[in-house]
Design brief:
This protein has 294 residues and is of the alpha+beta class. The chain has a domain of 118 residues: Up-down Bundle (Glutathione S-transferase Yfyf (Class Pi), Chain A, domain 2). The chain has ten helices and four strands. A four-stranded mixed sheet has the order 2-1-3-4. α1 links the parallel β1 and β2. The mean pLDDT is 96. The chain binds glutathione. The site of glutathione (GSH) has 11 residues, from loops. The site of glutathione has 11 residues, from loops.
Length: 294
C-alpha cells in the first residue's frame, strides 16, 4: 500500500471535521440537537424533505397520484435544509428518529401517523390510494422485489461511488474502483431487466420505477455526480430508453421541482402547497417579485 495507509487505533474517536464534505452534519450519535417546531399546512399529508433522489421518489409519487385523480393526495411539502442541520430539530426527529429526509406525517386519520424511510413512504401512499402497487399476487411481489433492491443497492451508488468519486477530499483509486465496479454491475442488472420488460417490474409503471428512476435514471441522464462519461452510461441502452420515457412524464417533471433548493432558479420550488405553486412560486418568480420596484 502507499504512504496513505492508515492503522486504526484500538477505539475510534470522533474528531470534529473527520466527516469530510459533510463534517458539519455527520455525527456518530442520534437524536435531536435543538428544539424546532415543524410547520403544518392545510392538507392531510405533510411532507418534510429535500429534492435529493430519496426525496424526489416521494414527490414524484404524490404528483403521479394527483395526476391520476387521487385528490386525497394533496400535500404540503416543506423544505428541510440538511446542510443546515434541520433534520436534527426536535419535531423532525419525532417523525424520523433516523434524522434523514424524506419524512411524512399522515394527518388524514384520527391520529397523525409518522412515516419515514422513502420505501416505506412509497408503500404507505401506494396502499392508501390503491395505485402504482398491485394489491396481491406475483405482480405485487415483483414490485416489492425491485423496490427493496433499490433500497439495498443505492447506498453503494450514493454513499459509496458518489461519495468517493465526487465528494471525498481526494481521489483514491481503491474505493473508486470498488464502488465503480459495483455501480456498473447494478446498472447492468437494470439494463438486462429492461431488455425484457417495459417497466422495471413488468408491464405497469409502479413505485419501483419511481424509486429506481430517482437514483439510476437520473444517474444515466447525467444528473448525478458528473459521472455519466466515467461510467459509460450510454452503453446501457435499455436503461437509458426507460429513463428518458419516465423523465418525459409531466408528474415526474413536477416531482423533481418540489423541495429543490439547487440548480436553475426556475426549477426550484422550495415549498409546495397547491398545484398552482409550480407556475407562481418558483425561485425565479419569487426573486423577480422581490426585486420589483414598489
Ligand atoms: N434510507 C433512507 C435514506 C435517506 C437519506 O439518506 N437521506 C439523506 C438525503 S438523500 C439525508 O437526509 N441526509 C442527512 C444526514 O445524513 O444528516 C431513505 O431512503 O429514506
Amino acid at each position: 500500500m502507499t504512504e496513505t495507509t492508515y492503522t486504526p487505533p484500538k477505539v475510534w474517536v470522533w474528531e470534529q471535521g473527520n466527516g469530510g464534505e459533510f463534517a458539519s452534519i455527520n455525527r456518530p450519535i442520534a437524536g435531536a440537537t435543538h428544539d424546532k417546531e415543524l410547520p403544518i399546512g392545510k392538507h392531510p399529508l405533510q411532507l418534510y424533505s429535500l429534492a435529493t433522489p430519496n426525496g424526489v421518489k416521494v414527490t414524484v409519487l404524490l404528483e403521479e397520484l394527483l395526476a391520476a385523480g387521487h385528490t386525497g393526495a394533496e400535500y404540503d411539502a416543506w423544505l428541510i435544509k440538511i446542510g443546515d442541520g434541520d433534520q436534527f430539530g426536535s419535531d423532525f426527529v419525532e417523525i424520523n428518529p433516523n434524522s434523514k429526509i424524506p419524512a411524512l406525517m399522515d394527518r388524514s386519520g384520527d391520529a397523525p401517523v409518522p412515516v419515514f424511510e422513502s420505501g416505506s413512504i412509497l408503500v404507505h401512499l401506494a396502499e392508501k390510494f390503491g395505485a402504482f402497487l398491485p394489491k396481491a399476487g406475483a405482480e405485487r411481489t415483483q414490485v416489492m422485489n425491485w423496490l427493496f433492491w433499490q433500497m439495498g443497492s443505492a447506498p453503494y451508488l450514493g454513499g459509496g461511488f458518489g461519495h468517493f468519486y465526487a465528494y471525498a477530499p481526494e481521489k483514491w483509486q481503491y474505493p473508486i474502483d470498488r464502488f465503480a465496479m459495483e455501480t456498473k454491475r447494478q446498472l447492468d442488472v437494470l439494463d438486462q431487466q429492461l431488455a425484457k420488460t417495459t417497466y422495471i417490474a413488468g408491464d405497469s409503471y409502479s413505485i419501483a420505477d419511481m424509486a429506481i428512476w430517482s437514483w439510476y435514471g437520473q444517474l444515466v441522464l447525467g444528473r448525478l455526480y458528473g459521472a455519466a462519461e466515467f461510467l459509460d452510461v450510454e452503453s446501457y441502452t435499455n436503461l437509458l430508453r426507460w429513463a428518458k420515457r419516465i423523465d418525459a412524464r409531466p408528474a415526474v417533471q413536477r416531482g423533481r421541482m418540489v423541495n429543490r433548493a439547487f440548480g436553475d432558479l426556475e426549477t426550484q420550488l422550495w415549498e409546495r402547497h397547491s398545484a398552482e405553486d409550480f407556475a407562481t412560486q418558483t425561485q425565479d418568480k419569487l426573486d423577480a417579485k422581490d426585486s420589483a420596484p414598489d
